[in-house]
Amino acid sequence: MREADRRRMATLRARAVRRTRAGLARISKHVAGASEHWADRVLDRGLDTSGNSLQPEHGADDRVSYVPSPWYVLPRALWYLGVSDRDTFVDFGCGKGRVVHQAARRPFRRVIGVEISPVLAEIARAGLNARRHQHRCQNVEIVVADAAEFQIPDDLTIGYFFLPFRGETFAAVVRGIVESLDRRPRRLRLIYALPYDGSMILATGRFRLLTEHRALPSDRRYGWAAIFESY
After folding, report:
1. pTM for the model
2. The CATH number of 56-230 is which of 2.130.10.10, 3.40.50.150, 3.40.50.10860, 1.10.10.10?
3. How far apart are CA 204 and CA 132, in angstroms?
4. Cα separation of 125 and 132, whole Å?
Protein backbone atom coordinates (compact mmCIF):
# COMPACT_ATOMS: atom_id res chain seq x y z
CA MET A 1 0.00 0.00 0.00
CA ARG A 2 1.35 3.39 -0.92
CA GLU A 3 2.08 5.99 1.78
CA ALA A 4 -0.74 8.22 0.54
CA ASP A 5 -3.18 5.33 0.83
CA ARG A 6 -1.96 4.51 4.33
CA ARG A 7 -2.46 8.11 5.43
CA ARG A 8 -5.93 8.11 3.90
CA MET A 9 -6.83 4.87 5.73
CA ALA A 10 -5.52 6.28 9.00
CA THR A 11 -7.64 9.39 8.50
CA LEU A 12 -10.72 7.31 7.78
CA ARG A 13 -10.12 5.15 10.87
CA ALA A 14 -9.67 8.19 13.09
CA ARG A 15 -12.85 9.72 11.69
CA ALA A 16 -14.73 6.46 12.32
CA VAL A 17 -13.47 6.33 15.92
CA ARG A 18 -14.58 9.91 16.55
CA ARG A 19 -18.02 9.20 15.09
CA THR A 20 -18.33 6.00 17.12
CA ARG A 21 -17.37 7.77 20.34
CA ALA A 22 -19.79 10.59 19.64
CA GLY A 23 -22.54 8.07 18.91
CA LEU A 24 -21.83 6.16 22.11
CA ALA A 25 -21.89 9.41 24.08
CA ARG A 26 -25.31 10.26 22.65
CA ILE A 27 -26.57 6.76 23.41
CA SER A 28 -25.16 6.91 26.95
CA LYS A 29 -26.86 10.26 27.56
CA HIS A 30 -30.14 8.91 26.19
CA VAL A 31 -29.90 5.75 28.31
CA ALA A 32 -29.01 7.78 31.40
CA GLY A 33 -32.03 10.01 30.88
CA ALA A 34 -34.26 7.02 30.28
CA SER A 35 -32.86 5.23 33.36
CA GLU A 36 -33.37 8.25 35.57
CA HIS A 37 -36.90 8.66 34.26
CA TRP A 38 -37.61 4.96 34.85
CA ALA A 39 -36.16 5.10 38.37
CA ASP A 40 -38.26 8.11 39.26
CA ARG A 41 -41.42 6.47 37.89
CA VAL A 42 -40.83 3.16 39.70
CA LEU A 43 -38.78 3.93 42.82
CA ASP A 44 -40.32 7.32 43.55
CA ARG A 45 -43.92 6.16 43.39
CA GLY A 46 -45.62 7.35 46.56
CA LEU A 47 -42.55 9.29 47.71
CA ASP A 48 -42.55 12.40 45.54
CA THR A 49 -38.81 13.05 45.99
CA SER A 50 -37.94 13.88 42.39
CA GLY A 51 -37.62 17.43 41.10
CA ASN A 52 -35.53 20.30 42.43
CA SER A 53 -36.89 22.78 44.97
CA LEU A 54 -35.74 26.20 46.16
CA GLN A 55 -37.27 27.17 49.49
CA PRO A 56 -36.94 30.50 51.38
CA GLU A 57 -34.69 28.78 53.94
CA HIS A 58 -32.16 28.11 51.17
CA GLY A 59 -31.53 31.83 50.65
CA ALA A 60 -28.35 32.08 52.76
CA ASP A 61 -25.03 32.07 50.91
CA ASP A 62 -23.88 28.72 52.28
CA ARG A 63 -27.22 26.96 51.65
CA VAL A 64 -27.98 24.83 48.62
CA SER A 65 -31.41 24.28 47.07
CA TYR A 66 -32.89 20.80 47.13
CA VAL A 67 -31.68 18.41 44.43
CA PRO A 68 -32.50 14.71 44.93
CA SER A 69 -29.59 12.39 45.54
CA PRO A 70 -29.12 9.86 42.70
CA TRP A 71 -30.78 6.58 43.57
CA TYR A 72 -27.58 4.55 43.50
CA VAL A 73 -25.26 6.69 45.67
CA LEU A 74 -26.42 5.62 49.15
CA PRO A 75 -27.00 1.90 48.36
CA ARG A 76 -23.53 1.66 46.85
CA ALA A 77 -21.95 3.31 49.89
CA LEU A 78 -23.88 1.18 52.39
CA TRP A 79 -23.00 -1.98 50.49
CA TYR A 80 -19.36 -0.98 50.95
CA LEU A 81 -19.70 -0.10 54.64
CA GLY A 82 -22.19 -2.66 55.84
CA VAL A 83 -25.10 -1.92 58.20
CA SER A 84 -26.20 -3.53 61.45
CA ASP A 85 -28.97 -3.00 63.98
CA ARG A 86 -26.43 -1.16 66.16
CA ASP A 87 -26.06 1.67 63.63
CA THR A 88 -27.78 5.04 63.67
CA PHE A 89 -28.05 6.98 60.42
CA VAL A 90 -28.48 10.74 59.95
CA ASP A 91 -29.12 12.46 56.61
CA PHE A 92 -28.08 16.10 57.00
CA GLY A 93 -30.31 18.16 54.71
CA CYS A 94 -32.72 15.35 53.88
CA GLY A 95 -35.02 17.40 51.65
CA LYS A 96 -37.98 15.32 50.50
CA GLY A 97 -36.71 12.19 52.23
CA ARG A 98 -35.39 9.99 49.43
CA VAL A 99 -32.21 8.98 51.27
CA VAL A 100 -34.05 8.58 54.58
CA HIS A 101 -36.40 6.12 52.87
CA GLN A 102 -33.47 4.22 51.36
CA ALA A 103 -31.73 4.03 54.73
CA ALA A 104 -34.91 2.90 56.49
CA ARG A 105 -35.04 -0.12 54.21
CA ARG A 106 -31.82 -1.32 55.89
CA PRO A 107 -31.57 -2.77 59.41
CA PHE A 108 -30.53 0.45 61.16
CA ARG A 109 -31.38 0.92 64.81
CA ARG A 110 -32.77 4.33 63.93
CA VAL A 111 -32.80 6.75 60.99
CA ILE A 112 -33.02 10.53 61.24
CA GLY A 113 -33.46 13.16 58.55
CA VAL A 114 -32.58 16.77 59.36
CA GLU A 115 -34.21 19.43 57.17
CA ILE A 116 -34.40 23.20 57.57
CA SER A 117 -37.46 23.64 55.32
CA PRO A 118 -40.81 22.75 56.96
CA VAL A 119 -42.35 22.34 53.49
CA LEU A 120 -39.81 19.76 52.39
CA ALA A 121 -39.90 18.05 55.78
CA GLU A 122 -43.65 17.57 55.48
CA ILE A 123 -43.24 16.06 52.01
CA ALA A 124 -40.64 13.70 53.47
CA ARG A 125 -42.93 12.63 56.31
CA ALA A 126 -45.82 11.96 53.96
CA GLY A 127 -43.68 9.85 51.65
CA LEU A 128 -42.14 7.89 54.49
CA ASN A 129 -45.56 7.14 55.95
CA ALA A 130 -46.71 5.90 52.54
CA ARG A 131 -43.73 3.55 52.30
CA ARG A 132 -43.54 2.55 55.95
CA HIS A 133 -44.46 -1.04 55.14
CA GLN A 134 -41.17 -1.34 53.20
CA HIS A 135 -38.97 -0.23 56.09
CA ARG A 136 -36.92 -2.67 58.14
CA CYS A 137 -36.12 0.17 60.53
CA GLN A 138 -39.29 1.42 62.18
CA ASN A 139 -37.60 4.13 64.24
CA VAL A 140 -37.56 6.86 61.56
CA GLU A 141 -37.77 10.58 62.30
CA ILE A 142 -37.72 13.84 60.33
CA VAL A 143 -36.43 16.77 62.39
CA VAL A 144 -37.05 20.35 61.25
CA ALA A 145 -33.89 22.18 62.26
CA ASP A 146 -30.96 24.23 61.07
CA ALA A 147 -28.22 21.61 60.73
CA ALA A 148 -25.72 24.03 62.29
CA GLU A 149 -27.80 24.02 65.49
CA PHE A 150 -28.82 20.36 65.43
CA GLN A 151 -27.56 18.39 68.42
CA ILE A 152 -25.57 15.49 67.01
CA PRO A 153 -26.84 12.27 68.60
CA ASP A 154 -24.11 10.41 70.43
CA ASP A 155 -25.16 7.13 68.83
CA LEU A 156 -24.64 8.44 65.26
CA THR A 157 -22.48 5.96 63.34
CA ILE A 158 -23.20 6.79 59.68
CA GLY A 159 -23.85 10.31 58.42
CA TYR A 160 -24.85 11.36 54.91
CA PHE A 161 -24.38 14.65 53.07
CA PHE A 162 -25.50 15.32 49.52
CA LEU A 163 -24.05 18.85 49.35
CA PRO A 164 -26.89 20.31 51.46
CA PHE A 165 -24.82 23.32 52.54
CA ARG A 166 -21.27 24.60 52.50
CA GLY A 167 -19.03 27.05 54.33
CA GLU A 168 -19.78 27.92 57.92
CA THR A 169 -22.87 25.71 58.16
CA PHE A 170 -20.90 22.66 57.08
CA ALA A 171 -18.06 23.61 59.42
CA ALA A 172 -20.52 23.91 62.33
CA VAL A 173 -21.92 20.45 61.63
CA VAL A 174 -18.44 18.96 61.46
CA ARG A 175 -17.57 20.61 64.79
CA GLY A 176 -20.72 19.13 66.29
CA ILE A 177 -19.76 15.68 65.05
CA VAL A 178 -16.28 15.98 66.58
CA GLU A 179 -17.78 17.14 69.88
CA SER A 180 -20.03 14.08 69.82
CA LEU A 181 -17.01 11.87 69.25
CA ASP A 182 -15.32 13.52 72.23
CA ARG A 183 -18.35 12.76 74.40
CA ARG A 184 -18.61 9.19 73.17
CA PRO A 185 -15.64 7.80 71.22
CA ARG A 186 -16.78 5.35 68.56
CA ARG A 187 -16.40 4.34 64.94
CA LEU A 188 -18.23 6.87 62.78
CA ARG A 189 -18.41 7.01 58.99
CA LEU A 190 -19.45 9.96 56.85
CA ILE A 191 -20.74 9.55 53.30
CA TYR A 192 -20.23 12.84 51.50
CA ALA A 193 -21.55 13.16 47.95
CA LEU A 194 -20.02 16.03 45.97
CA PRO A 195 -17.40 16.46 48.72
CA TYR A 196 -16.22 19.97 47.87
CA ASP A 197 -15.61 20.76 51.54
CA GLY A 198 -14.12 17.37 52.39
CA SER A 199 -10.91 19.10 53.49
CA MET A 200 -12.83 20.43 56.51
CA ILE A 201 -13.44 16.87 57.66
CA LEU A 202 -9.79 15.87 57.27
CA ALA A 203 -8.62 19.10 58.93
CA THR A 204 -10.21 17.96 62.21
CA GLY A 205 -7.52 15.31 62.53
CA ARG A 206 -10.23 12.86 63.59
CA PHE A 207 -11.13 11.34 60.22
CA ARG A 208 -9.33 9.66 57.37
CA LEU A 209 -10.49 9.20 53.79
CA LEU A 210 -11.64 5.62 53.55
CA THR A 211 -12.52 5.47 49.86
CA GLU A 212 -13.99 7.42 46.96
CA HIS A 213 -16.80 6.28 44.70
CA ARG A 214 -16.73 7.80 41.27
CA ALA A 215 -19.86 8.81 39.44
CA LEU A 216 -21.26 6.43 36.88
CA PRO A 217 -20.34 7.38 33.31
CA SER A 218 -23.97 8.26 32.68
CA ASP A 219 -24.16 10.54 35.74
CA ARG A 220 -21.05 12.69 36.05
CA ARG A 221 -22.83 15.58 37.78
CA TYR A 222 -23.92 14.18 41.12
CA GLY A 223 -22.62 10.66 41.68
CA TRP A 224 -19.14 11.34 43.08
CA ALA A 225 -18.89 10.50 46.78
CA ALA A 226 -16.18 10.24 49.42
CA ILE A 227 -16.41 8.12 52.56
CA PHE A 228 -14.58 9.19 55.72
CA GLU A 229 -13.98 7.17 58.86
CA SER A 230 -13.13 8.33 62.37
CA TYR A 231 -10.02 7.06 64.08
Report:
1. 0.81
2. 3.40.50.150
3. 37
4. 10
